[in-house]
């Protein structure tokens, strides 16, 4: 059984499976289309909503956090690019893990990617609903409040009203209370749900279902519109920048800047989603690596510039709003621009929803080909050439929670699954170098010998921690053993991993760049809350139950061997 769990698939075997009769897909995507899909995924809910909260917590210095996270993503993108040039198959990190680590790790990554794509789409759909409702209200169209939010908001608002009185409620709580009071009822239970979030998910799922060509055209149009408006915001907003708003640059210190890690990283999620379209690329081994790097660099530049403009136009304390781009222009009296941004934000978030909804079915399709999921997930529509059944299931999986769940439940959870996948992809490149599989790669991560550099970096890190991390060390001394395990265990895992990598790098001459990718992603993981990790572990446990009940028994690799 142990041998089967870690049995690897060869590159030739994976490519042969993807080219088997009945599994062919339409090859129409070039570099420009892939870059467009990548920008569509990255420039979505993050830049139009979460960027405000990150700036509120970190001040103008949050622009440096965008640089740091983009820097972290570059190392991961290089690793993805090498795998994509070696294994040009729709499956993303799932397929790469099957080649590098074996079936069990492949399943775990595939299951974690559900969090990155399907669960993040729930966040995007709910965010889209908020912007859409605001846009309609700008045109004088009002949807009943009980049709625009999750029931949890209404119930929480009612509970607060009973506790402190209705006159004390403000903002979302006041709107949610109105939803509770005006909603139709079944007995004493109010009927509250987020209808726009459900409808947009159904519409996007239909578009993805009818074809990659239609999805590509829609994505290209939406990307042109939203990048155009973002450039206009940067250029137009530059005239309203007051340099004094950039002082103090980091008002809440490093901890304030890093508190936005999850929000900022969520803004970058998506550059890897284009690897799921490998079987629809004209030349995936050449085009995928280029597209990943291009879209990441473009989006990082846009994020940094727009953050500097936002924090320069108004004081960072004013940015804790759900629509920061529209808010700053309204704040400076440029109301027409604020209205344009509100409309554009709906388009921008729709394009992100489209790409994630495109990615998830293709991962399920690849897992189904390997026998780890029900074989219907691998069904390709005879006319549209898309994974039809997997697309419908993805639509259902995203639509129902988007109708009824609160958004904040999902945001950090999405980041946990993504960090986990990124770490294994970076580690997979180290395996490829060691096993000689890199010889088949048409694109390779630039090799820098980390034999001594990883260990030297570890020592320098400890020294810096001793001299500049006394506040953190003092906090550790005040915590009991239980709190250390609950809240600081990931920090210990980070340092122990760095120590282990230092030893292995010395023994095996590890490539430095993938090691940096592993360490940066692991560090960012350690900044997320313990509650997210508990949910993530429970999620993985549920996935393992499914694997051993179905996937292990039906694995095509196991049956063949």
UniProtKB/TrEMBL annotation:
State the annotated membrane topology for this chain: Multi-pass membrane protein
The record's subcellular location field reads: Membrane
Q: Which residues form the Cationic amino acid transporter C-terminal domain?
A: 512-555
Q: Does the keyword Transmembrane helix apply?
A: yes
Q: Does the keyword Transmembrane helix apply?
A: yes
Please give the start and end residues of each transmembrane region: 34-56, 62-81, 189-209, 221-241, 253-271, 291-316, 336-359, 384-404, 410-431, 452-469, 481-501, 508-524, 530-550
Q: InterPro entries in the record, alphabetically?
A: AA/rel_permease1 (IPR002293), CAT_C (IPR029485)
Which keywords appear in this protein's UniProt record, sorted alphabetically? Membrane, Transmembrane, Transmembrane helix, Transport
Please give the name of this protein. Answer: Cationic amino acid transporter C-terminal domain-containing protein
What phylogenetic lineage does the species belong to?
Bacteria, Pseudomonadati, Bacteroidota, Sphingobacteriia, Sphingobacteriales
